[in-house]
């Protein structure tokens, strides 16, 4: 059986490989390679250099089955491309189709002014290795451009996200890692939330963080906070996101169940979206659930950058009341751990959370909440991770189904009323 699978694949690897080098605006050049599997990244760059002597090419791209461009910058990535290509060849052979050449798209290195259209910027002055500092956007896969949010495009078209263009206004809050400011982005006239985190780390780590944050450009969901860009200046990173005028859920007092239900639907959809991108949130809690007066609910502060999380963790002391028991006891973290935190975020009163590792899971007071709600929370907070609902079970849970009616007005009215109350309590400015 195994032989049947491996046999044709190896046979194919021994065949000649035709690489079609696409030249921007002027056709293509076919290059026949006799030792496909041994091909090195450097070899391909050399050949591209001969085809395009005017440009300095640092990377190239190929297209996956969805037409998304994938960047190749190393031998490892070359291997991934070849193995993907051979699998498509195998399919073409099985279907009796003509074998298509492997198409690649050289990426020329342009002057920094033109290149850094994403607004991502590494402050190279902060680090020692100035001469070898490729701009971070060098490593941006072009499919990060895919994000089609009109707002994002507007901002990117208006120029880079950088400190000079940002006017910091009020402080929105302090967290363990940093401070969030309401800020005005001068070129776009847009209000942003900018999280500033002090990080005394090397330039290499700064670059790693920037490259890990790239996935945020791909996140395109109405349940996830919009990302506009990030930049380092000296020892601090600024992460620019959409501003949510209702702030985070932790500042709201009692939330009626019909509002909470709609919020829970949005949070479950946001988490399901992240999980579909293989991102675990890792910090699900009310202060990372944001609302606005349009009735939208969005998740923020999910752990896309391991390096950022690690760097912040070095300065972070204390435990997090929303953490799943398996995480507190240092076991493996997974989707189920996000589900625990989801359950606990929607649970009142929160003081029941002490001693979660040793005690039985807390139970909601009966009578105050509907049966589906109590069941939903209880299921999310099963001590055994595997017993907690899987993503599709969350979406299909009666509590979520009941409130999954797309009614944003309920949340919108509740946010507006709460903000008004807050204003009237504070009195005139
Ligand atoms: P932790 O650091 O443990 O995650 P936290 O979530 O409270 O705690 P921050 O993420 O620094 O801390 O956020 C501080 C506060 O800033 C939040 O509680 C929230 O009220 C506010 N905030 C964060 N992002 C936004 C945003 N995009 N729009 C409006 N307010 C925001
Ligand atoms: Mg937060």
Automatic annotation (TrEMBL):
<dbReference type="GO" id="GO:0016301">
    <property type="term" value="F:kinase activity"/>
</dbReference>
<dbReference type="InterPro" id="IPR000719">
    <property type="entry name" value="Prot_kinase_dom"/>
</dbReference>
<dbReference type="InterPro" id="IPR053793">
    <property type="entry name" value="PB1-like"/>
</dbReference>
<keyword id="KW-0808">Transferase</keyword>
<keyword id="KW-0547">Nucleotide-binding</keyword>
<dbReference type="InterPro" id="IPR017441">
    <property type="entry name" value="Protein_kinase_ATP_BS"/>
</dbReference>
<dbReference type="InterPro" id="IPR011009">
    <property type="entry name" value="Kinase-like_dom_sf"/>
</dbReference>
<dbReference type="InterPro" id="IPR034851">
    <property type="entry name" value="PB1_MAP2K5"/>
</dbReference>
<feature type="domain" description="PB1">
    <location>
        <begin position="18"/>
        <end position="109"/>
    </location>
</feature>
<feature type="compositionally biased region" description="Polar residues">
    <location>
        <begin position="126"/>
        <end position="144"/>
    </location>
</feature>
<comment type="similarity">
    <text>Belongs to the protein kinase superfamily. STE Ser/Thr protein kinase family. MAP kinase kinase subfamily.</text>
</comment>
<feature type="binding site">
    <location>
        <position position="195"/>
    </location>
    <ligand>
        <name>ATP</name>
    </ligand>
</feature>
<dbReference type="Pfam" id="PF00069">
    <property type="entry name" value="Pkinase"/>
</dbReference>
<keyword id="KW-0597">Phosphoprotein</keyword>
<keyword id="KW-0829">Tyrosine-protein kinase</keyword>
<feature type="region of interest" description="Disordered">
    <location>
        <begin position="116"/>
        <end position="144"/>
    </location>
</feature>
<dbReference type="InterPro" id="IPR008271">
    <property type="entry name" value="Ser/Thr_kinase_AS"/>
</dbReference>
<dbReference type="InterPro" id="IPR000270">
    <property type="entry name" value="PB1_dom"/>
</dbReference>
<keyword id="KW-0723">Serine/threonine-protein kinase</keyword>
<feature type="domain" description="Protein kinase">
    <location>
        <begin position="166"/>
        <end position="400"/>
    </location>
</feature>
<protein>
    <recommendedName>
        <fullName>mitogen-activated protein kinase kinase</fullName>
        <ecNumber>2.7.12.2</ecNumber>
    </recommendedName>
</protein>
<dbReference type="Pfam" id="PF00564">
    <property type="entry name" value="PB1"/>
</dbReference>
<dbReference type="InterPro" id="IPR052468">
    <property type="entry name" value="Dual_spec_MAPK_kinase"/>
</dbReference>
<keyword id="KW-0418">Kinase</keyword>
<keyword id="KW-0067">ATP-binding</keyword>
